[in-house]
Amino acid sequence: MTGGWAATPERGSGAALRLMARIALGLGWPVAQALLHPITAFYLATSPAAQKRAARRYLTRALGREARWGDLWRLYFCFASTLLDRVYLLTGRSAGYRVDITGLETLHAAAERGQGLVLLGAHMGSFEALRAVGGAGAPVEVRMLMHTANAGPADALFDSLDPTRRAAVIELGRPEAMLAAREVIERGGVVGLLADRAPRGERMVPVDFLGDPAPFPSGPMTLAAVLRAPVVLGFGLWVGPRRYALHFEEFSPALVLPRETREEALRGWIARYAARLAEMCRAHPHNWFNFYDFWREEER
């Protein structure tokens, strides 16, 4: 798959997604949850062979054994479950959801000091669950720095469900993006970055990930250094129907890239992030939603 993550098309038409959202909101969570099983079976059966090969290779690394069909099913089902939960979380229907949080004291301490944070995440679990922390005792502004060029029907649907969602995004690539992010930090807010993928064309740095070299984007670490704020890792893990485990941990009091050793320092920060992400993937293998050739094995 030479196109990479950003060139991987989002599956599912806008009409089908809107229909599922109406079913979920109209008939309730039990009916929608039951429908996830045939939906997962359909998408797994019809998924392109290259996507299934990529997912199987990832799972084999994370599980430490050859991935089986059931492992693929769990990965696809976990992904579908987080999409369904977004429909409810974005419309404020959180009754019945259980969210267990660890590391919240890190956010509390920063909020009490009026200090902004950079939150590094990944395409793991649900960021909508991470946003729920605002209602769990840490009422701070949370904005995401992200590329929107790969947005598809799902993003359009979620934006329609929660009109404030788009306002919480700072679009990378715009001249005013860094100014907006710095203002959030100065107000004591949180700026989030997904540090495991980037659009094609961004500079990548190969580091060890789950036992083999894999390219990670340099941009997120560079941006975190420019923002000059403490850096925290955050993951919103799906652990079962309507159950999430939110995990926050300190990554660095400040991410520094000295001019004299910039390349070495940058690689070191990326490697440290990749090592922690690998640990999370091994502990929660079906939460990292990878459906493309992350290690670029098919390009060799």
From TrEMBL:
<dbReference type="InterPro" id="IPR004960">
    <property type="entry name" value="LipA_acyltrans"/>
</dbReference>
<keyword id="KW-0012">Acyltransferase</keyword>
<keyword id="KW-1003">Cell membrane</keyword>
<dbReference type="InterPro" id="IPR014548">
    <property type="entry name" value="Ac_Trasf"/>
</dbReference>
<protein>
    <submittedName>
        <fullName>Lipid A biosynthesis acyltransferase</fullName>
    </submittedName>
</protein>
<dbReference type="GO" id="GO:0016746">
    <property type="term" value="F:acyltransferase activity"/>
</dbReference>
<keyword id="KW-0997">Cell inner membrane</keyword>
<dbReference type="GO" id="GO:0009247">
    <property type="term" value="P:glycolipid biosynthetic process"/>
</dbReference>
<dbReference type="Pfam" id="PF03279">
    <property type="entry name" value="Lip_A_acyltrans"/>
</dbReference>
<keyword id="KW-0808">Transferase</keyword>
<dbReference type="GO" id="GO:0005886">
    <property type="term" value="C:plasma membrane"/>
</dbReference>
<keyword id="KW-0472">Membrane</keyword>
